[in-house]
Amino acid sequence: MVGKVVIIEISGDTSVKPSVIVLKKDREPELYEKARRLDIGTALCFEGEVSPIQKSKRGVEYIVKSITIYSEPLEPLPVDTVGKVPTLLDTRIKYRYLLLRNPVEKAIFKIRAGIIEAARKYFISKGFIEVHTPKIVAAGAEGGATLFPVKYFEQEAYLSQSPQLYKQILMTGLPRVFEITPYFRAEKFNTTRHLNESWGIDAEQGFINGVEDVMKTLEELVCYITDYLRENYVEEQEVLGIEIEKLTPPFKKIKFEEAVDILRSEGIEIPEGEDLTDAAEKKLGEIMAEKGHKIYFIIGFPWKATGFYYMREEDGYHTRKFDLDYKGLEIASGGQREHRYDKLIEAMKNKGLNPENFEFYLEAFKYGMPPHGGFGLGIERLMMKLLNLENIREAIIFVRDRTRIVP
C-alpha cells in the first residue's frame, strides 16, 4: 500500500510473472477498501482486463472490475513468498508448496517440466515407446546394499533402484523404449548431490552396432533438451538470471584410465579398479573445463567398478560402460549390455550374485535377445548444472533424503 493506492501481486497461474492490480481510493473506492484489508496469502479471484499502460516491472498490470475472496490465511505465512527476505534451504524445502508463489521457485519447476516435455518429444520423434516398469521388485539392479525393503504380503520385496532389468527384457519385443521414472536408493549419503528418491529419464535401444549408438542417442537427447529450454523457457531464464548454454555435439570422450592419469597428476589417487569419487569427479570437471570441455563422456570403465549387465571387452578388464559428466557432475550413465545368456550367468557369479534370484530376467535371454544398450539421465542432476543450483534438493519439490520423509 502506497498512500491512497493499493498494489496487489497475484500468483495464481503457471506464468512466472505475477498479475498486478492497482487500486486507487478515488477511482475504485469500494475495491480499494476491500483490498487494503487483505492479508498476504489470501486466495482470491479478480475480473478485469489488461491495463493499456504497464508500469509494473515485475508482472502484468490489470484494471479490475471485481474481486472475490475465497479464503484468508489463519495466521501469517511462515516464509516470505515475495522473495525480499532470504530463506534457508531447510525452510525452503519445508514450505516449497508456498514458495511456488515466488517467481524464482516457480521458474525452477517450470523448467523441470520443460525437461520432461522435451525428452518425450525427442524420444517419440525417434520412434521410442514410453513404458512403465514396476517400482516394487524382487531384486535390485545395482546391488543389495542400497535397496529399500518393502513388506509385500508374504514375500520379500524392494523399491526399484532402476528400471534397468525390465528395460532389457523388453528388447525382445520393443527395441526402443523410454521411461521417466523414480529411483529409490538407500544410500546413506547426505551430500549436495545425492537424494534417496530421485527421478531419471531412462532409455534402452536394441539392434545396436555398438556402445557408440547409445552414446549418440544420449548426446542428441541432452542437446535437444537444452535447445528446447533455450527456445521455450526464455522468461523463466530471465527470472533466474541465467542463460542456458547451447551444447554442441559431438561431446568429448576420454578413457577411464586417461581420467585417472589426469587426476593422479593433480595428487588425487584412484584405487585400482574403483570408480571415481565425488571429489575426483568435481576436480576432473575443473580440469576438463580449462581444456574447453564442460560436458564429456568417460568411457571404458573397469569391470570391477560396473554392474554385472555391462558387456565386457575381450581383454576381460574393460567394459562398454560410460558416464556423461557435466561441469564435474555425473548426470548420466549407461552402456552396451551383455545380451548373451551364458556370459550373463558368468558375470553374475563373478559379482557374487545368485542367478536364481534373477530368473525372470535371465529367462528373456533364452529367446533371441538382440544386442542392446541404454542409459539413465538424472533429472535433478541435469537441473543442477543447467540452472547453477548449489544443492540437488533445490531441483525437486518434495525432498526424500536421509532426514526427510515429510512433507
Summarize the structure.
The chain is α+β, with helices and mostly antiparallel strands and 407 residues long.
Q: If you had to describe this structure to a student in words, what would you say it looks like?
A:
The strands form 3 sheets. The chain has an 8-stranded mixed beta sheet. Strands 1-2-4-3 form a 4-stranded mixed beta sheet, covered by helices on one side. A 3-stranded antiparallel beta sheet has the order 6-8-7, with no helix packed on it. The protein has 407 residues and is α+β, with helices and mostly antiparallel strands. The chain has 12 helices and 15 strands. It has helices spanning 29-36, 89-94, 96-99, 103-125, 164-169, 211-232, 234-240, 256-265, 278-290, 341-350, 359-363, 379-386; strands at residues 5-10, 19-24, 43-50, 60-71, 129-130, 136-137, 149-152, 155-159, 176-184, 197-206, 252-255, 295-299, 321-326, 329-336, 372-378. α4 crosses α6 (211-232) and α4 packs antiparallel against α7. The two termini are 34 Å apart. The longest helix is centred in the first third of the chain and has 23 residues, at 103-125. The protein folds into 2 domains: 5-76, no CATH class; 103-395, BirA Bifunctional Protein, domain 2 (2-Layer Sandwich), CATH 3.30.930.10.
